[in-house]
Amino acid sequence: MTASTAALTPLKDLRISTHQIPAFDRMPNSSIQRKPLLIYHSAFSLGASASTIESHLTTVGVVDPQWRYTMYRTSHFHSTTHEVLIVASGKAKLCFGGEENPNRVEPLVEQGDAIVVPAGVAHRLLDDLDGGFTMVGSYPKGKNWDMCYGKEGEEEKVKGIEHLGWFERDPIYGHEGPALNA
Questions:
Q1: Cα angle value 141/166/14 (rounded, 5°)
Q2: What value does the CA radius of gyration of the chain take, rounded to a whole number of Å?
Q3: Exposure string (b/e) for 95-121, b if CB count within 10 Å is 16 or more?
Q4: Which one of 3, 25, 171, 177 is CB 3.0 to 4.6 Å from 55, fit for a cystine?
């Protein structure tokens, strides 16, 4: 499997979950830019390695893969960039929006799923279901991520979210794809 031929689910067959998550406490979630949390279920074929995923993302050229890790167990969000997460191994239950938020989203994600997390959307790991949950974390080219926790004193950082640009090309599919319709 080469970078340009990573086995992706054809767009016509891709199952997508779209979630608008209202602000809660000091977590802006999708309230500022109105861009939804997007989950591309089984975007990559089972067996696609982290290296293959990184190579594919690099070839598409929208985001730069920056790390391989699990997800932090503390709710956090980014004010300086959107985030693209691809599950490279395992499965887990995640929380988006803040664990006390009655409008939170708690999806089960597994190998091959891709998640587009807009800036401001709080996220955390709830449960690593098989002990091997790993993701490839990527960010738009030229962007650096920060860590915000919905605490007092982060208000100025949060204000910057409204000025962030959205994707001009889909980070997984390129010239077509769900992020372009968000």
A1: 95
A2: 15
A3: bbbbeebeebbebebbbbbbbbbbbbb
A4: 3
* Pairwise CA distance, residues 5 & 91, whole Å: 24
> 90: buried, middle or exposed (CB in 10 Å: 19+, 13-18, 0-12)?
middle
pLDDT digits (tens, 9 = 90+) for 83-135: 999 999 999 999 999 999 999 999 999 999 999 999 999 999 999 999 999 99
Average pLDDT over residues 27-31: 97
d(CA 162, CA 34): 10
Cα 160 to its chain centre, rounded Å, is: 19
Question: Which contacts of 56-60 are long-range, i.e. CB under 8 A and separated by 24 or more positions?
Answer: 56/3, 56/4, 56/6, 56/8, 56/172, 57/84, 57/86, 57/136, 57/138, 57/171, 57/172, 58/3, 59/3, 59/4, 60/169, 60/170, 60/171, 60/172, 60/173, 60/174
**pTM of the entire predicted model:** 0.95
Q: Which helix (H) or strand (E) holds 80?
A: none
